[in-house]
């Protein structure tokens, strides 16, 4: 029986991408093409995992007045939908793609505020998911008005039930979750700097910061570094995965694809270096697509040989 995974997206969004060559603020701009995708970090991870035939459930909060796009998407991907429907509209995030100047401008809205009744319904959904799922991925920002300790409380609750929890968050919600020691976290360099409160100017500093978190009980820290790839640190290894140069079509979902690839590797009992290779390949594959999607699996597998893996254990220690 395959391991079932649940992703939690507390603050999902509809990603409305509009292409505008030479976009200029304060002027009339004309759209050459547009694309609308259901979004939110956990939803993106679920979409990528479904492409690897991982049984997946999703939950969080969706506005009932524009939920159709998400419901059709979940049905198409055969994703088990456990979202709590709340009064109102799921936020729309605007992404302006300026291919002429190789720029992307993001305009992110704050999202819905769940009521106490909504939160109670969500608690019941978590209870049902605990019965069905072994891995939980908690991803993204939290809704306006929700306490920043929500991820920490969820991690504690899930770990007490023997579940494996991966966290991809930032800011205060990440800070407050660290004492509860999720299995893995995936900050980028800026998020890691904010978390630990100091500048990280080179690989050695990044590794030291990751190892400090390992000593607090986290089992794996994945630090994404854009075009430089990512550093993967656990209790026994330090791996740097460096991707080939690729044409970047969109950065939407690249970090989520890395999380998905990492989880797929772990579910298949890959070594850390092989997890790093698959995760990094998924990330660069997402860069080649508009919106949170991956190319066919055989294309992803053909790119894996182009990711360079280097052990930094000896050079660091």
Could you outline the blueprint of secondary structure elements for this entry?
Blueprint: E1 5-9, E2 13-19, E3 33-39, H1 41-50, E4 56-63, H2 68-77, E5 80-81, E6 84-86, E7 92-98, E8 103-107, H3 116-132, E9 135-139, H4 150-160, E10 164-168, H5 171-177, E11 184-185, H6 189-196, H7 203-214, E12 220-224, E13 230-234, E14 238-242, H8 254-267, H9 272-287, H10 297-303, E15 308-311, H11 313-316
Parallel strand pairs: 1-4, 1-9, 2-7, 4-5, 4-6, 9-10, 10-11, 11-12
Antiparallel strand pairs: 2-3, 7-8, 12-13, 13-14, 14-15
Helix pairs in contact: 1-8, 4-5, 8-9
Mean pLDDT comes to 92
Reported for the largest beta sheet, the result is: 11 strands, mixed
The radius of gyration over CA amounts to 19 Å
Q: What's the number of extended β-strand segments?
A: 15
Report low-confidence residues grouped into runs of 5 or more.
Answer: none
Strand content of the residues, in percent? 15-25%
What general outline do the C-alpha atoms trace?
globular
CATH class of the largest domain: Alpha Beta
Alpha plus pi helix count? 11
Fraction in helix = 25-40%
Total domain modules: 2
Name the CATH architecture of the largest domain: 3-Layer(aba) Sandwich
Structural class of the secondary structure composition?
A: alpha/beta
The SSE string, one letter per element, is EEEHEHEEEEHEHEHEHHEEEHHHEH
Q: CATH-wise, what's the superfamily of the largest domain?
A: Ribokinase
Q: Termini distance?
A: 40 Å
CATH topology of the largest domain: UDP-N-acetylmuramoyl-L-alanine:D-glutamate ligase
């Amino acid at each position: 029986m395959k391991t079932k995974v649940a992703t939690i997206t507390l603050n999902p969004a509809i990603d409305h991408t509009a292409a505008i060559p030479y976009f200029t603020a304060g002027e009339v701009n004309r759209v050459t093409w547009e694309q609308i995708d259901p979004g939110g970090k956990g939803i993106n991870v679920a979409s990528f995992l479904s492409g690897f035939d991982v049984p997946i459930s999703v939950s969080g909060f969706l506005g009932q007045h524009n939920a159709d796009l998400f419901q059709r998407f979940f049905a198409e991907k055969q994703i088990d939908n456990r979202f709590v429907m709340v009064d109102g509209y799921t936020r729309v995030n605007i992404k302006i793609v300026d291919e002429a100047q190789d720029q992307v401008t993001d305009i992110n809205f704050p999202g819905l505020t769940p009521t106490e009744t909504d939160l109670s319904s969500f608690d019941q959904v978590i209870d049902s998911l605990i019965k069905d799922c072994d891995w939980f991925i908690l991803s993204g920002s939290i809704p306006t008005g929700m306490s920043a300790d929500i991820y920490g409380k969820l991690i504690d609750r899930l770990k007490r039930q023997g579940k494996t929890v991966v966290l991809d968050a930032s800011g205060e919600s990440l800070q407050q979750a660290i004492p509860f020691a999720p299995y893995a976290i995936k900050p980028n360099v800026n998020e890691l700097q904010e978390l630990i409160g100091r500048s990280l100017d080179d690989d050695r500093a990044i590794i030291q910061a990751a190892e400090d978190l390992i000593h607090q009980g986290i089992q794996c820290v994945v630090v994404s570094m854009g075009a430089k790839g990512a550093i993967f640190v656990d209790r026994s290894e330090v791996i740097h995965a460096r991707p080939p140069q690729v044409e970047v079509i969109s950065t939407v979902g690249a970090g989520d694809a890395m999380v998905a690839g990492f989880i797929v590797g772990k579910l298949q009992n890959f070594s850390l270096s092989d997890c790093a290779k698959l995760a990094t390949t998924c990330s660069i594959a997402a860069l080649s697509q508009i919106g949170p999607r991956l190319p066919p699996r055989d294309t992803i597998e053909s790119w894996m040989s182009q990711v360079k893996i280097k052990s930094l254990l000896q050079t660091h220690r």
